Amino acid sequence: MPVTTELRDGAVIVTLRWTDKRNALSADDADIVSEAITAAGSEPDARVLVLTGEGTFSAGGDLPYFAELGRTLTPEEIHQTIYRRVQAMVRALRDSPIPTIAAVDGPAVGLGMDLALACDMRFVGPKGFLMQGWARAGLIAGTGGVALLHRIAPDLLWRLLAEQERITANRAVELGLAEPGEPDACRPRSPVSRRCRTSIAACSATMRRSHGRRPGRPRRISTSGRAPGPSAVLVRVP
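Below the sequence we write its predicted structure tokens.
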């Protein structure tokens, strides 16, 4: 199965398993991921949702698939595909009634980094890294990553866009983007990591009582308008 869901010790773990393409996602794949996240968030015995990937967290978008869309679809059809279907994964994480964690044990690039940023917390293992990726591929960030990064670490936005830094676990901790995951992101053992996960799990009952709305956090990440800077990075998660 391309996506599996497992309930383990109060955590519902959603694992991407497109190993043949390193979890590079098409719009059809995005539909499956969105549905899995939504279903996992409704699991009555789950206190936290963990999103991870087998081998690779996500190498980003399925570039051959999207190149074909560019050749065969109208601009409006491409708009609907990206903003309605692909961004649905970000909306599913945003609207989860329980806290969400990205467990990054391999590359999380472009769309993959955006999915990690869309989670409430990120753990990066020794083999994991984050990379903005969009500009390196000559693409506009199309899945909310600019707005998500600006929300978490606004001072990093243009540096990461320009430098395309490969952000390892230690570097992610240094930049305030993630917590360390040892021996891997799904099983962090450090005292800080344990406290963070315990705190997230403890607030899940409050979130359920408030009908899935995170206290102090707006329901929409970004609707319309501009992220800081040029219009080339204008993104929307309607």
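Residues 27-41 form the longest helix (15 residues).
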